[in-house]
Amino acid sequence: MFKSRRAGTFFSLLFLLIIIILITVDLTKPFLCFNEKKQNPQETFEKNLERSLILYGNWFIKNQTDAGDFNYELNVDTGEKIPNYNIVRQAGSFYSLTHAYKYTKNDNYKKGIEKGIIFFENLIEEVEGNVPMSRIKHEGTIQSNTVAVYLLALIEYIETDNTDKDKYLETSTKLANYLLYTQRNDGSFLQRLDPAEESDYNNGESFYALIRMYKLSGDKRYLTGATKAADYIILKYSAEPFNYSVFAWAMQGMAHLYSVEHDSKYWDFMKSYTDSYFKRGGNTANLYFRGYKVPPPKGNLGVYLEGLAHVAWTAKETDPYYYSEVSLFIKKSLEYLMSLQINGPASERKSAIPWISGGICYDYRCKTQRIDITHHNLSAIYFYLTYVK
């Protein structure tokens, strides 16, 4: 009888222990974990980038005027327009809006692009020459890089919807012919003709526009112009201190030229010039990302990411280790830049002003927004999602 009581007590305690376990432990969790898809940090990052890109595209639509251009600069606190203007950056904003449309096929972006085309068509004038040529004249000023960047926008738009090719190819050809007209024998380009003036920005932009025009049209004249420009850029800028103005556009041009010609000299220059970037501005950003007490990067970091995305694109096959290094820097930079986007998917910065929402702060103090900073960051995201990931 004593043994029976001990056995009964043992089984009672065992039963009580099982009840406690059932109450305190969710036994279904292992089975749920088996069926659940674990959250992938890279997927989350890319989804945030897509949302950020859409917010940028929407920001441009909200800030597009009835004439078709964009509000240039805004006070973040009040939403008031700051009376500045730059026609080249207007063309750049139009160019980036074509990236938003190319990635999303959003009809609102298409309508915004068509409004932009009407705006620029009113600024185009014909130029006499041996071939049909056109250029853009704004308030009496003619700058070749306005032509180059607007041409890039048209090319992106044509590539997105081939039904627009016949509609805009003639205009694109005339603009490209004008860029060839401004190219000097050494391969450089004139930003202004009278008086003759060269520009580092324009050397990169016109070079990039010509190689993209060649890939669109197959016209060898544009390939010849692009190769001359590439040789000039390699010769000139390899012998000088790092030039921030030429970097992003030149890297984009070199990447597309390399995809056509596969000449190692183009990749060698891309890699050496990118190394120079990482020793300067890129190094400061890297230190910040690693926790050092250096000033946070400004929003214009997105400018250089456009060039770096093309370096990573080329490095995928030519130098996988270099690709991993460059792509990691781009990713860290984009993560940081998303924190500067008002009401962005990875940002704590908020605003109830509709036309401020979705744009990016000029810098970490976030006093102003400007179209060039926003358009470069939109394109940087587009290039990462298209060429890098």
From TrEMBL:
Gene3D superfamilies named among the record's database cross-references: 1.50.10.20
Top-level taxon in the UniProt lineage: Bacteria
GO biological process, one term: carbohydrate metabolic process
InterPro entries, per the entry: 6-hairpin_glycosidase_sf
Protein name from the UniProt record: D-glucuronyl C5-epimerase C-terminal domain-containing protein
Organism: candidate division WWE3 bacterium RIFOXYB1_FULL_42_27
